[in-house]
Amino acid sequence: MKKILNIAHRGFSGFYPENTMIAFEKAIEAGCDGIETDVQLTKDGYAVICHDEELDRTTTGTGLIKDYTLEELKKFDAGIKFGKEFKGLRIPTLEEFLKYVSDKNIIINIEIKNSIIDYENIEKIIYDLIEKYKLEKRAIVSTFNHYSVRRCIDLNNNIKTGVLYCDCIFEPYNYAKIVGVNAIHPGYNNVNKEIIKKAHDNNLKVNVYTVNDKEDMKKMIKLGVDAIITNYPDLLKTLM
Questions:
Q1: What are the tens digits of pLDDT across the range 91-105?
Q2: Which PROSITE patterns match (predicted)?
């Protein structure tokens, strides 16, 4: 039976503040095969790790990431809203994350957060950093912005890419071939046996998100997806 990859969603975000260095460290300790994380751009053009375009939910900041410089963003606390014991954590830069994982034997799934704000030049900024840390073979870049995926492929088609989607796309394997990606990244409710088989027939990987319930995990394992993205890599590891 083929190995299904256990990808920690925003790090070990079930028990630690999402997209923080401790969440990434704990995901690796839990035995994940890879880490999924989200990238946006600061006002002064730095790639930083945060899921939401706005700071309000996960940090002590307010408003949009794009309106702050990196120095200003680093003043906000990215842990305390999850729990008082995490006070003092900061928003990591993509470079900090890539430097940390560069000597770890894991896959990295970078989601470009540019379907709401189409950050200028974000693809090149990310790709330059992936290449700087020689992670081309271990990276997969995905986004809901499929025009952005094409820009990524044009930059370096040796880096794997995936299209994210959350609806019932008709024949997603055919669509993915048109876009030119290596994988589809559907919400786990949007896959079935036929889609997975035809994706595999077309040499495409099927990486599903965000699977947190044990029964859903079992279902995805039985269906034969290629990777499961989860907030609970520890639970998934016990099942596999």
A1: 999 999 999 999 999
A2: GP_PDE
